[in-house]
UniProtKB/TrEMBL annotation:
Gene Ontology annotations for the cellular component aspect, listed alphabetically: ATAC complex; nucleus; SAGA complex
Keyword Coiled coil: yes
Name recorded for this polypeptide: SGF29 C-terminal domain-containing protein
Primary subcellular site in the record, as a coarse category: nucleus
Cellular compartments annotated: Nucleus
Alphabetical UniProt keywords: Coiled coil, Nucleus, Transcription, Transcription regulation
InterPro entries for the chain: SGF29 (IPR037802), SGF29_tudor-like_dom (IPR010750), Tudor_SGF29_rpt1 (IPR047288), Tudor_SGF29_rpt2 (IPR047287)
Coiled-coil region: none
Pfam families, alphabetized: SGF29_Tudor (PF07039)
Residue span(s) of domain SGF29 C-terminal: 140-277
Organism: Caenorhabditis nigoni
Highest taxon in the source lineage: Eukaryota
C-alpha cells in the first residue's frame, strides 16, 4: 500500500508540475503567435500593393516570405515541445490509472480517451510521414519498446487483444499485460504475435495516403471491448478529429457485416493471420464479449 500511495503522489506532483510549466510557457506562445500574425499581415500588404512580387519588388517579397517562414517554424517548434510534454504526461497518467483497480466503465473510458489523445503527425519538409503514423506500420519483425501499445494474438482464445509491452527479452519475446486482465500476471508473446499500434494520427488533409482506404481489410478494436476483430473500412476519417467507420464481419447480417461503427485511428491496424488462423469475427448481435 505505501508503494501505491507514493505512485499516486508522484503522479499528482507530475500533473501539478506539468500544469505550472505550461502556464509559464503560454505568454511565449502568444508572443510568437503575435510575431507570426504581424509577418503574415506585412506579407499580405506587400502582395496587395505589388502586382508583380517577382518583378522589381522581388527582393523585398523574398525577405517577407523568409521572415514569415522563420516565425511560423519557431512557433511550430515550440508548440511541438508543449504537445510532447502533454503526451508524456498523458502516458504517465494512463499507466498510473491502469495500475489501480478500475471498474469496467472506467477502463472503457480510459481506452477511449487514450485513442482520442493520439497526437497528430505534423508533416516535416521531407514530406512523407514515417512509421507508426496512421496506417504506416513499422517493418515486420522490427524491435518494439517497453510501453508500446499492441494488438497481441492470444493462442488459447485465437483472439487479438489490446495489451501493453512491459519488457522485451533478448530472444525477441515480449512480456505484455492484457489491459483487461483480471490478474497482474504477464503473458509472453513472440514478435510475430504482436502488431504495434499507431503512435500518431494521420491528417486526411495532408497525409491521406497514410490512412486505410475505403474497403481496406483491417483489424479494429470493437467498441466497448478490448479485442480486435476483422472488418472493412466503410469510410476513413475526413478530418483528423474523426474516427474510422468500420464494418465488422458478422454473419448474423445478410451482408455479412454489421453496421459501421466508429473506431479511433489508434485502434485500427492492417489485417493479419497467425499460422493460418483467421481472426475471430466480431461479437454477434446481443452477445457480450470481453
Amino acid at each position: 500500500m505505501p508503494k501505491q500511495k507514493n505512485n499516486v503522489q508522484a503522479v499528482e506532483e507530475m500533473r501539478k508540475k506539468t500544469a505550472e510549466d505550461l502556464l509559464k510557457k503560454l505568454p511565449d506562445v502568444k508572443e510568437r503567435q503575435d510575431v507570426v500574425n504581424e509577418n503574415l499581415k506585412r506579407l499580405q500588404e506587400f502582395r496587395d500593393n505589388e502586382p508583380n512580387p517577382m518583378g522589381k519588388g522581388k527582393t523585398k517579397h523574398l525577405a517577407a516570405v523568409t521572415s514569415t517562414h522563420g516565425a511560423v517554424a519557431a512557433q511550430q517548434t515550440e508548440l511541438k515541445k508543449i504537445l510532447d510534454e502533454l503526451r508524456r504526461a498523458s502516458e504517465v497518467d494512463y499507466r498510473s490509472q491502469m495500475e489501480g483497480d478500475l471498474s469496467r466503465r472506467d477502463l472503457m473510458e480510459l481506452i477511449k480517451i487514450r485513442g482520442e489523445l493520439l497526437p497528430l503527425w505534423v508533416n516535416k519538409s521531407s514530406g512523407f510521414p514515417g512509421e507508426y503514423v496512421g496506417a504506416i506500420a513499422p517493418q515486420e519483425g522490427s524491435k518494439l519498446n517497453e510501453g508500446d501499445a499492441v494488438a497481441a494474438f492470444n493462442d488459447k482464445t485465437e483472439i487479438w487483444i489490446l495489451a501493453d509491452i512491459i519488457s522485451c527479452n533478448s530472444n525477441s519475446r515480449y512480456e505484455c499485460k492484457d489491459v483487461d486482465g483480471e490478474s497482474k500476471k504477464l503473458a509472453v508473446f513472440s514478435r510475430s504475435h504482436l502488431i504495434p499500434l499507431p503512435k500518431w494520427k494521420a491528417n486526411p488533409d495532408s497525409d491521406k495516403h497514410a490512412l486505410f482506404a475505403k474497403n481496406a481489410i483491417v483489424l479494429a478494436l470493437y467498441p466497448q471491448t478490448t479485442c480486435f476483430y476483422k472488418g472493412i473500412v466503410h469510410s476513413p476519417p475526413s478530418d483528423f478529429r474523426e474516427p474510422y467507420q468500420v464494418a465488422f464481419e458478422d454473419d448474423s447480417y445478410n451482408s455479412g457485416y454489421c453496421p459501421p461503427m466508429p473506431v479511433a485511428q489508434k485502434y485500427v491496424v492492417a489485417f493479419k493471420e497467425v499460422a493460418g488462423i483467421t481472426a475471430s469475427t466480431a461479437p454477434k448481435k446481443g452477445n457480450k464479449k470481453k
